[in-house]
Amino acid sequence: MAYQGFAQEYLGMPAVTRAYTTACVLTTAAVIWRLITNFLFFGPLGFSFFFNMIFLYRYCRMLEEGSFRGRTADFVFMFLFGGFLMTLFGLFASLFFLGQAFTIMLVYVWSRRNPYIRMNFFGLLNFQAPFLPWVLMGFSLLLGNSIIIDLLGIAVGHIYYFLEDVFPNQPGGKKLLLTPGFLKMVFDTPEEDPNYNPLPEDHPENQPRDQDQNQQQHPQ
Question: For 108, which of 45, 74, 155, 158 is 20 to 30 Å away at the CA?
Answer without folding.
Answer: 45
